[in-house]
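Sequence in, structure out. Go.
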Amino acid sequence: MLVTMFKIILVVIFCSAVRIACGEESSGPQQISTTAKYHDGNNCECSVFNTSEPCPDHTAIMIESVLQVECNEEGKATCTDMCKALALAAHDKSPKILCSHLGDYNNLEVFLHSRICGSEWQYTGLNRGNLCCKKSEVVECVHEN
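Output:
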């Protein structure tokens, strides 16, 4: 289960690493918001939501376009695998990256999704729970009684 919790974070870490490398890292706390700036018809996109079943109007915590794929079942599988692989590769850094985007948050559970070609978001099966942030830094969660 611990591995599953960290898998969802791959997209966040990958995307943040790209932003940092490109000098686009923002400073200070931010509200949960979509970070994607464009949508190309054949993009494979990875996203983090605070639900496993987002509605069409549900705002993502992060969205990143990571790969060009064909708009078919093979492209869909490739996209899902890429999102999962990126999350696994970034699992050690993902809480910090998420907190840098969220600012302050207590006991957040996040879910990794993928989609291709502007289709609906598909939950990848990866999630992470109990993420707590204060002033954009990871902190130990305060459990309310």
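Check: The longest strand covers residues 122-134. The radius of gyration is 14 Å.
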